[in-house]
Amino acid sequence: MNNLLADADICVKCGLCLPHCPTYNKTQSENESPRGRIALIQAWAGGHLETSKKLAEHIDNCLLCRSCERVCPAVVPYGRLINNFREQISAERDSTLAVSLLKSVSHNKTAGRLAQSGLRFYQTSGLQKTARLLGLPGLLRLDKIDHLLPDYHEPTPLAPHYPATAEVRGNVGLFIGCMGSLLDHETVDAAIKVLTAAGFNVYVPEQQTCCGALDLHAGDNETFRQLAATNCSAFADKSLDAIVTIASGCGSQMQEYRQAEFAGKVVDISQFLIKSGCDLSDQLLPLSASVCLHTPCSLKNVMREEQGAAKLLQQIPGIKMQPLPATIQCCGSAGSYMLDHPQMAQALLNDVLAAALENQPGYLVSSNIGCALHISAGLRERGVELEVLHPVALIARQLK
What we know:
9% strand, 9 strands, 3 domains, single chain, four-stranded parallel sheet, five-stranded mixed sheet, alpha/beta
């Protein structure tokens, strides 16, 4: 309680955060603003407000996009405050079947392998089409997960080490993430291809596991700490110059691990390549296409590495970049938020899609798998054939 009050008391209620909060902008409710949520937590921690479903809902409606944190003049540790509050009331919060299933698959390698086999059968046998016609995903309350599934692609077995294919510049560990290994094999393969072409020896520790963000945001700090410890052990090799991530949601969480030696090495792959001085332009085929750039909240507000993707893609000859307007906020993905809060997630996604489709781009790129899945699902619903992929996947396709 003292920690909650100490963090909450930093807020001076100036309201400068309000225009940057997606849920406040949609509802115009103070209870759905950072300032309002902090006031609710202060009242609860001070014993002036009882624990209730309504209180939990207001806090849980927060996307943890942390836009407020970026503009706060008092530097309120808002993300930490929300996570600590959720831990305090974790017994009062329910987890949906979809989120529970997501955690099981992400935490357990055996469950992940079973999920991979299950997805192969479900999507390639015609079962998915039949199940959708019969409405089975909805009956099983798994329609939101089914809605997000991309077309199935057979994964390439990963080796623990990939040597550089150019003059060696250093050694990196690649964090592939639980969802990357299950649903985004192209980005995993592309990251290895691009990093080795840029002169880096790539190590992919088999021991690595989920980053723990889902658990921390759900108030399960114990599981989060266990996962963090496993990852720190997996990437303990002192020869690694960096721990490169292909999902900014994972990267932003790992940069805030308590283990400073590990956290200090974590970097987004696009930013890493740019900061390392890698110029791949001579190795890239021209691409005469417009590309809409979506910058995830985790990359922008937590990792503060939003320029890397644009600078990397601009190395492709002939490419035309179309960043989303600065007025566009969170896409609504936010980890498991799109599963637990579908109405708000859809409202925010509609804003992103309207802005993205205005200039009819050839591609849409995003540096976070959750955002990419959410946006892709929205495009399919609209019947729009626009490919969504990671920036490094587009780079890999253009490598000579």
